[in-house]
Amino acid sequence: MEQRALILRSVRYLESDRVVTFFSRDEGLITGFARGAAGMASRFGASLEPLTLALVMGRHHLEGTLYRIHKAAILDTFALLKSDLGRFYWAGAAVRFLLGMLPPNFPEPLVFDLAVRYLESLADPEDSPAVAWVRFATSSLALLGYQILSGTCSLCREKPWDDSFRYHPQDGRLLCSACHDSPDIRAESFVTVDRWTLEYLHGIERDGEKVFLNSPLVERSITFLDHVLAYRIDGWKSIDSLPVTLS
Ligand SMILES: [Zn+2]
Predict the structure, then answer these.
(1) Does residue 53 lie in a domain region?
(2) Domain containing residue 133
(3) pLDDT at 209 (0 to 100)
């Protein structure tokens, strides 16, 4: 079977083979074995480099065995993002996101489309990587079942008087300060986030193709998403810690 796939990770195995983890639009996250793909000069090997959009042909030979990649052809190498170190770091964040969030062998075609769209943005000098990241991460989280809410407190249904919420990364609850300060709740680990950041994330998820340039909100969104992802992904390296511009 032939499938569109984003190559996420590629590790040399013995002399001439590779173990490749890729995100297939049709089959989700797959780890496969590519015989003879380790040679740097081979076209097969080049099409299995990380951050390549490829057409991958292969299959599981037996139920439960490693996927065998027979052939691969390059569809897009996102050349510009690989020549710009900052944009390369941004792309790496999406790779870690996908490796950390996607369940294996489960199709997530809309997340796939968002990931390709994100890499296309990074390869376009007109697009802001920071805004593209917020759009990709927020919308992908929503599709994977972790939609970030906005508006009112999950308990009392009021708008918070101080415009500040406590967000619980495990179940997505949003509490106002008053509800958060009740004795049985205070011990849990909530992330503090202001109302405008949540509204910004909500807007970018709902209406992602509009340009949402607002530096303070983009920065606050990135910090907030780092907290959410640190909760979901072991060893998440926060965007804050990377040598990139946040706006
Ligand atoms: Zn409340």
Answers:
(1) no
(2) 128-247
(3) 61
Task: Report the side by side order of strands in the sheet with 191-194.
Answer: 174-175, 164-167, 191-194
Query: How many domains does the chain fold into?
Result: 1
The answer to whether residue 1 is domain-embedded is: no
Q: How far is the CA of 129 from the centre of ligand 1 (A)?
A: 35
- Does residue 186 sit within a domain? yes
What's the pLDDT score for residue 118? 97
Helix ranges, 65-186 (H): 79-82, 85-101, 109-122, 129-143, 177-180
Spacing, Cα 101 to ligand 1 middle (Å): 30
Residue from 197, 241, 192, 195 nearest 215 by CA: 197
Low-confidence ranges of the chain (pLDDT < 70): 40, 186-187, 208-212, 247
Whether residue 98 is contained in a domain is answered as no
Which distant-in-sequence residues (6+ apart) come within 8 Å of 123 by Cβ?
78, 79, 80, 81, 87
**Could you tell me the distance, in angstroms and rounded to a whole number, from the CA of residue 228 to the centre of ligand 1?**
21
Q: Is 136 left (phi over 0), alpha (psi -120 to 50) or beta?
A: alpha
Instruction: State the number of CA atoms in the 13 A half-sphere of 63 facing the CB.
Output: 0
What CATH code is carried by the domain that includes residue 162?
Answer: 1.20.1440.120
